[in-house]
Known about the structure:
Number of strands: 8
Shape: globular
Order of helices and strands: EEEHEHEHEHHHHHHEHEHH
CATH class: Alpha Beta
Helix content: 40-55%
Number of domains: 1
CATH topology: Rossmann fold
CATH superfamily: Alpha/Beta hydrolase fold, catalytic domain
CATH architecture: 3-Layer(aba) Sandwich
Number of helices: 12
Strand content: 15-25%
Low-confidence stretches: 275-289
Strand order of the largest sheet: 1-2-4-3-5-6-7-8
Amino acid sequence: MSNTGIRKRSVQGHHGEVAIQLQGDPRDPVVVMAHSILSSAAMWDEQAALLADQGWCVLRIDATGHGDSPAPAADVVKMEGLAADTVAVLDALGIPRAHYVGLSLGGMTGFGLGIHHAARFLSLMLCAARADAPAAVAAPWDERIATAEQHESCEPLAMPTIERWFGKPFVAANPGLAQRFQRIAAGTSVKGFTGCARAIQGLNHLEGVGHIALPVTLLVGSNDGVLPQAMGDLQQRIAGSVLETIAGAGHLPNIDQPTAFNAALLRHFERVRNPSHPHSPRKPLCTHT
Length: 289
């Protein structure tokens, strides 16, 4: 694990203050990591340490109202605003371009970044995410939002969410890990959760993904409901993209199948660092302060 400490701070974003964590040598190229709804930057602990050891400067962002980021100041949160938060962080740190790794909500945001903010990114690794929200995907969020608002807490959502992510057998076999993620989910602000859930309901990047010209790796767990099929469709739409499927993994493959996920993560960065790859950029320096 990296000996380089984690530096925490906050910057002004589109929705208000955004909490960030920096890890690794500040002279190394930057990798932005974005998490799922009802989670936080903590879900990337193992991968952030791994990448810092591999010569990357890792920038983890807590989405608005999640982790250490306060509830959004705006009344309405949209996917475009979540992308704007990410760009605002890069601007605040003086980072001209970065690589991006996002999972679930973070992956959804990544599609928007690749479509609308491609000049700020060098590659995308988008995990367990779709680019649209048809009725069957959007509808369940209404009940979850109502539950959080009724109880004025995300605590009632925590265990059902963990069981959807990992499956009940994994939760039973890994109680300490399940309890950790349950606490993170329960601690999410209601306004942060409902804002991001409404943003997911308005997700509409599918028609634009064919315009993404960055190096893209898509990754999905084989046990993650309909997402393997959805991400297979996305791979067909994004020219030159690579699809990685993690056998036996659920919605957070970096947690329930970390060895396989980490190997795929390193393959992605080997691919984008390889000078023979047509999209590979020259290695930049992390210029943030």
